[in-house]
């Protein structure tokens, strides 16, 4: 490693060089150290996909924001949302606000669209008394684990994401997803981002459809990565009882979200199970410590969330 002796570096999963953990060995000013080593951090992030800064003495959201600004000053707002979040100030958000007893599957942030952050930062503010980990998986290794014929089918056809926005409070409203209450702004966003949209007189208030990528090449390393959320948006990701309730209430064509092949044909549930298994086989899971900062190359590395008990707070920034 090109870092000085002030820090210790080791991999959480040495056999695959998974998640580089950096920990100070002496008292240091974390902001000065990050500023001096920004180039090394950027290089190792592209090489390994994920870095965990541990015991750097940063325990406030404002300190986290300062770290993020030193590494990536061009932070993004969270528009065209998939999950609920609360803004903590500036462009720092809470991690996805989802029931504590549920898990969030592996995904690369915003890979259900054609616009995504290059980096995503996580900051452990309050550690859950049990569970609440943020597992990660190398999207390059996931790509290689998926059967060639399955991979090629998805790559050739692309993935169609269908979202229905209802007024009943089921899933996110279009106002929260697009961060506006003006239909004209939604229309322009959809037109600018190649999203088909339809305002409906009956049933869902708004329906959007977009065909996106199954995989991409990393812009710097040129390595192929699995990069989509077909398995997460598909109805097979729902528990049977929840799915049956939604179908009964809304009808199968009006479900809040679903995925198809790019030509509109249904995706076989067993193929999505195969993809979920590929993610599981590459999962790296670690216990959060208070003050941990995890930096991910959002293209190279997917992330998830485990169920938890007690209070948990993780702040997030995207760049």
Give the end-to-end Cα distance, rounded to a whole number of Å.
Answer: 25 Å
- Unreliable spans are none
Mean model confidence by pLDDT: 94
The CATH superfamily name of the largest domain is Clavaminate synthase-like
Total discrete domains: 2
The total of helices stands at 10
Nearest-angstrom radius of gyration?
Answer: 20 Å
- Looking at the structure, the CATH topology of the largest domain is Double-stranded beta-helix
Largest sheet, described in full?
8 strands, mixed
Name of the level-1 CATH class of the largest domain: Alpha Beta
Total beta-strand segments? 19
Biggest sheet strand line-up: 1-2-3-16-7-19-5-4
- Described by the principal axes of the CA atoms, the overall outline is globular
Q: What structural category do the secondary elements indicate?
A: alpha+beta
Query: What is the beta-strand fraction?
Result: 25-35%
Level-2 CATH architecture of the largest domain: 4-Layer Sandwich
How much helical structure, as a percent, in the residues?
25-40%
Order of helices and strands: EEHHEHEEEEEEHHEHHEEEEHHEHEEEE
In short, what is this structure?
This protein has 319 residues and is of the alpha+beta class. It contains ten helices and 19 strands. It folds into two domains: 7-135 and 284-318, Double-stranded beta-helix; 147-279, Double-stranded beta-helix.
């Amino acid at each position: 490693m090109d870092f000085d002796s002030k820090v210790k570096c080791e991999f959480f999963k040495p056999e695959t060089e998974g998640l580089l953990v950096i920990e100070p060995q002496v008292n240091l000013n974390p902001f000065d150290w990050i500023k001096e080593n920004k180039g090394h951090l950027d290089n190792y992030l592209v090489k390994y996909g994920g870095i965990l800064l541990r015991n750097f003495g940063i325990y406030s959201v404002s300190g986290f924001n300062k770290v993020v600004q030193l590494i990536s000053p061009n932070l993004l707002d969270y528009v065209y949302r998939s999950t609920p979040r609360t803004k903590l100030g500036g462009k720092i958000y809470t991690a996805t606000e989802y029931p504590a007893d549920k898990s969030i599957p592996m995904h690369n942030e915003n890979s259900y669209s054609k616009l995504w952050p290059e980096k995503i930062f996580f900051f452990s503010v309050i550690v859950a008394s049990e569970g609440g980990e943020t597992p990660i998986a190398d999207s390059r290794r996931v790509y290689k684990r998926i059967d060639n014929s399955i991979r090629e089918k998805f790559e050739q056809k692309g993935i169609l994401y269908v979202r229905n926005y209802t007024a009943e409070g089921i899933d996110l409203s279009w106002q929260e997803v697009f961060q506006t209450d003006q239909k004209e702004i939604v229309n322009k966003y959809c037109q600018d981002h190649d999203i088909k949209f339809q305002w409906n007189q009956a049933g869902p208030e708004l329906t959007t459809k977009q065909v996106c990528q199954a995989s991409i090449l990393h812009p710097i390393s040129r390595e192929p990565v699995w990069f989509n959320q077909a398995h997460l948006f598909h109805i097979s990701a729902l528990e049977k009882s929840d799915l049956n309730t939604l179908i009964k209430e809304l009808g199968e064509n009006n479900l809040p979200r679903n995925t198809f092949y790019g030509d509109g044909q249904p995706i076989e549930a067993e193929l999505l199970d195969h993809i979920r298994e590929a993610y599981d086989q590459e999962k790296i899971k670690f216990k959060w410590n208070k003050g941990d900062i995890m930096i991910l190359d959002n293209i190279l590395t997917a992330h998830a969330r485990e169920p938890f008990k007690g209070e948990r707070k993780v702040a997030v920034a995207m760049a």
